[in-house]
Design goal:
GO terms for molecular function: serine-type endopeptidase activity. By secondary structure, the protein is mainly alpha-helical. Helix content is 61%, strand content 4%.
């Protein structure tokens, strides 16, 4: 059962670790700025478990048709955060390789590119993207909690410790506190 979360920390080589670090820095960082550190941590664990469960459900079906690699690394969770971000984005179109495309297609282009990253699991990334899209469209509304709960969680143990770590940028749970910290 512990592997439902710990698979995001497993990397086969330096190239996949580097790709995972870039994906974490770029996609998860912008997602954290929008929701706050508390909600980001909770959703990271939730997206990890839901992606793993969906992978475990689909793997026997897909393995009959294709060679399926093990889900490893942070990419499934990064695709989940990317799916949420693009689904909830107010932008209609964006530039990809010089062409204007609908924003909702960006994660699918990313999925095609991730197929070529060594030791990445196409099925694992697809499961992460599907979980993120479902959450972004509101099908997982039970995972949302009010900002007041996020503000209260900001003041409990693991998150008070995260605030004190020098060099680590902690993003508050409430929108008002996030805006105030951005302005200062």
């Amino acid at each position: 059962v512990h592997r439902l979360i710990t698979y995001i920390f497993i990397y086969e080589d330096l190239i996949s670790l580097t790709c995972g670090a870039v994906i974490i820095w770029y996609f998860a960082g912008s997602f954290e700025k929008n929701v706050g550190t508390v909600k980001h941590c909770i959703l990271t664990a939730t997206f990890s478990v839901l992606s793993a469960l969906l992978y475990l459900f689909l793997e026997p079906l897909v393995s009959r048709l294709l060679d399926v690699g093990d889900a490893k690394g942070f990419m499934p969770v990064a695709f989940a955060t990317l799916g949420v971000s693009t689904t909830r984005s107010r932008m209609k179109r964006t530039l990809v390789l010089g062409y204007r495309v609908p924003v909702v297609l960006v994660p699918w282009f990313g999925l095609c590119i991730a197929w070529f990253i060594p030791h990445s699991s196409l099925l694992g990334n697809l499961c992460g993207l599907l979980v993120g899209e479902a959450y972004g469209l509101g099908y997982c509304f039970c995972l949302d909690f009010p900002e007041s709960v996020g503000s209260k969680l900001d003041r409990v143990f693991p998150f008070t410790l995260l605030r004190r770590i020098p060099g680590l940028k902690y993003i508050p749970g409430s929108l008002a506190e996030r805006r105030a910290s951005e302005n200062s």
